[in-house]
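ingest -> validate -> predict -> emit
validate: passed (alphabet ok, no gaps, 232 aa)
predict: started
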Amino acid sequence: MVVVRSRDLESLSRDITQCRACPRLVDWRERIGRDKRAAFRDETYWAKPVPGFGDRRAHMMIVGLAPAAHGGNRTGRVFTGDRSGDFLFASLCRCGFANQATSTTVDDGLVLRDAYVCAAVRCAPPANKPTTTERDECAPFLHRELELLDQVRVIVALGAFGYEAVWSALRASSTFGAKLPPRRPRFAHLLEVPCGPVTVLGAFHPSQQNTFTGRLTPAMLDAVFRRAAALT
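emit:
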């Protein structure tokens, strides 16, 4: 497992972007960076692990699944440049956590307010399906982010995979571990779990599989972030 001793978010971001711990993910992210989608053939892909970003004094932390192959793996910023991000940032904007509803590039002017976004796995995985082993290898990065973002009072877990990663991070924490419920509640949309000084909220992931089928609607995601705002 990766050993993380970063003293601040800047050094943590550097440590994340230099990681090569998972051979399958390294091969895939770099292959996608070479074999580009036709629409982006003139762009230089990031093709490295993607760190989190947002307000350093955030009271809300959002944990997703992993960067998209032609989204964050291309742009270098999680949820930027893909349909899931369009859905997510539109909701954050409506709920007052972002200054704009879209995010296409790292320099497009997006600013998160009182929110920080990251992923359980930092590299784009094949078929958008990281393994639990890859999640566990990446876990120390999320653990350290949670320690450094010491103002966080709400953690929004996007999907069951992100929820499990959040639970692992809390369990490993000297601050939160003793305050967890004896049994982990089953993941659900709008699930709310008090964990001492933080509350974990569940939300369906804004993947196209969920948004195109209506399993997750804009109003449903807005309800999560409005609840998060009320808790912070």
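The chain has a mean pLDDT of 94.
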